[in-house]
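Researcher: Good morning. I'm working through a list of sequences from a screen, and I'd like to move beyond sequence-only analysis. For each chain I'm collecting a predicted structure so we can compare shapes side by side. This is the next one on the list. No need for commentary yet; just the structure.
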Amino acid sequence: MLPLFIVVVAFHVLSGVFWAGSTFVVARNPQVWSRGIARAQFGAALVAVAAGAVLWGLLRLPIASPSALVLALGAACAILAAAIQLVLALTAGNSTVRPVLWQRAAAVLLAVTVVAMATARYAI
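Model: Good morning. C-alpha coordinates for this chain:
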Protein backbone atom coordinates (compact mmCIF):
# COMPACT_ATOMS: atom_id res chain seq x y z
CA MET A 1 0.00 0.00 0.00
CA LEU A 2 2.87 2.39 0.72
CA PRO A 3 4.09 2.47 -2.94
CA LEU A 4 0.53 3.25 -4.10
CA PHE A 5 0.25 6.00 -1.49
CA ILE A 6 3.57 7.53 -2.61
CA VAL A 7 2.55 7.50 -6.29
CA VAL A 8 -0.85 9.04 -5.58
CA VAL A 9 0.70 11.74 -3.35
CA ALA A 10 3.19 12.54 -6.13
CA PHE A 11 0.39 12.96 -8.69
CA HIS A 12 -1.65 15.03 -6.23
CA VAL A 13 1.20 17.35 -5.28
CA LEU A 14 2.70 17.82 -8.75
CA SER A 15 -0.62 18.51 -10.46
CA GLY A 16 -1.72 20.74 -7.57
CA VAL A 17 1.48 22.76 -7.68
CA PHE A 18 1.08 23.36 -11.41
CA TRP A 19 -2.62 24.17 -11.07
CA ALA A 20 -2.24 26.61 -8.17
CA GLY A 21 1.00 28.11 -9.52
CA SER A 22 -0.36 28.75 -13.00
CA THR A 23 -3.52 30.22 -11.49
CA PHE A 24 -1.48 32.61 -9.33
CA VAL A 25 0.53 33.69 -12.40
CA VAL A 26 -2.57 34.26 -14.54
CA ALA A 27 -4.30 36.14 -11.72
CA ARG A 28 -1.40 38.61 -11.64
CA ASN A 29 -0.65 38.68 -15.37
CA PRO A 30 -3.83 38.23 -17.45
CA GLN A 31 -1.95 38.35 -20.75
CA VAL A 32 -0.74 34.82 -19.99
CA TRP A 33 -4.29 33.45 -20.01
CA SER A 34 -5.27 31.53 -23.13
CA ARG A 35 -7.18 28.43 -24.12
CA GLY A 36 -3.92 26.46 -23.91
CA ILE A 37 -3.26 27.37 -20.30
CA ALA A 38 -6.94 26.89 -19.50
CA ARG A 39 -6.83 23.31 -20.77
CA ALA A 40 -3.62 22.60 -18.89
CA GLN A 41 -5.05 24.09 -15.70
CA PHE A 42 -8.23 22.08 -15.94
CA GLY A 43 -6.29 18.88 -16.72
CA ALA A 44 -4.13 19.47 -13.66
CA ALA A 45 -7.27 20.22 -11.63
CA LEU A 46 -8.82 16.90 -12.66
CA VAL A 47 -5.68 14.97 -11.71
CA ALA A 48 -5.32 16.83 -8.39
CA VAL A 49 -8.96 16.33 -7.40
CA ALA A 50 -9.00 12.66 -8.47
CA ALA A 51 -5.75 11.93 -6.63
CA GLY A 52 -7.09 13.81 -3.59
CA ALA A 53 -10.19 11.62 -3.60
CA VAL A 54 -8.03 8.50 -3.73
CA LEU A 55 -5.90 9.82 -0.87
CA TRP A 56 -9.04 10.55 1.16
CA GLY A 57 -10.04 6.91 0.74
CA LEU A 58 -6.57 5.63 1.59
CA LEU A 59 -6.23 7.77 4.72
CA ARG A 60 -9.60 6.70 6.19
CA LEU A 61 -9.83 9.68 8.53
CA PRO A 62 -12.69 9.78 11.00
CA ILE A 63 -15.29 11.96 9.28
CA ALA A 64 -15.74 14.42 12.16
CA SER A 65 -12.07 14.72 13.07
CA PRO A 66 -10.55 18.21 12.91
CA SER A 67 -8.07 17.06 10.24
CA ALA A 68 -10.85 15.68 8.06
CA LEU A 69 -12.87 18.88 8.40
CA VAL A 70 -9.88 21.03 7.40
CA LEU A 71 -9.18 18.77 4.41
CA ALA A 72 -12.88 18.85 3.44
CA LEU A 73 -12.78 22.67 3.44
CA GLY A 74 -9.70 22.57 1.21
CA ALA A 75 -11.31 20.04 -1.12
CA ALA A 76 -14.48 22.13 -1.40
CA CYS A 77 -12.42 25.23 -2.26
CA ALA A 78 -10.45 23.28 -4.88
CA ILE A 79 -13.61 21.92 -6.51
CA LEU A 80 -15.13 25.41 -6.60
CA ALA A 81 -11.93 26.80 -8.17
CA ALA A 82 -12.05 24.04 -10.80
CA ALA A 83 -15.67 24.89 -11.56
CA ILE A 84 -14.79 28.57 -11.98
CA GLN A 85 -11.95 27.72 -14.34
CA LEU A 86 -14.12 25.32 -16.34
CA VAL A 87 -16.71 28.06 -16.87
CA LEU A 88 -13.89 30.41 -17.90
CA ALA A 89 -12.58 27.91 -20.42
CA LEU A 90 -16.03 27.31 -21.87
CA THR A 91 -16.80 31.04 -22.20
CA ALA A 92 -13.38 32.11 -23.45
CA GLY A 93 -14.83 33.77 -26.56
CA ASN A 94 -17.37 35.77 -24.58
CA SER A 95 -16.17 39.37 -24.25
CA THR A 96 -18.43 40.02 -21.24
CA VAL A 97 -16.47 37.56 -19.08
CA ARG A 98 -13.61 39.14 -17.11
CA PRO A 99 -11.15 36.22 -16.87
CA VAL A 100 -8.69 37.99 -14.57
CA LEU A 101 -11.31 38.59 -11.86
CA TRP A 102 -12.44 34.98 -11.94
CA GLN A 103 -8.84 33.74 -11.98
CA ARG A 104 -8.19 35.86 -8.90
CA ALA A 105 -11.19 34.27 -7.19
CA ALA A 106 -9.87 30.84 -8.14
CA ALA A 107 -6.42 31.83 -6.84
CA VAL A 108 -7.86 32.78 -3.45
CA LEU A 109 -9.74 29.48 -3.28
CA LEU A 110 -6.60 27.54 -4.20
CA ALA A 111 -4.60 29.45 -1.58
CA VAL A 112 -7.13 28.29 1.01
CA THR A 113 -6.77 24.76 -0.36
CA VAL A 114 -2.99 24.83 -0.05
CA VAL A 115 -3.15 26.17 3.50
CA ALA A 116 -5.71 23.50 4.41
CA MET A 117 -3.50 20.71 3.05
CA ALA A 118 -0.44 22.08 4.83
CA THR A 119 -2.15 22.52 8.18
CA ALA A 120 -4.70 19.68 8.36
CA ARG A 121 -2.22 17.43 10.08
CA TYR A 122 -1.93 19.90 12.95
CA ALA A 123 -5.65 20.53 13.42
CA ILE A 124 -6.74 19.75 16.95
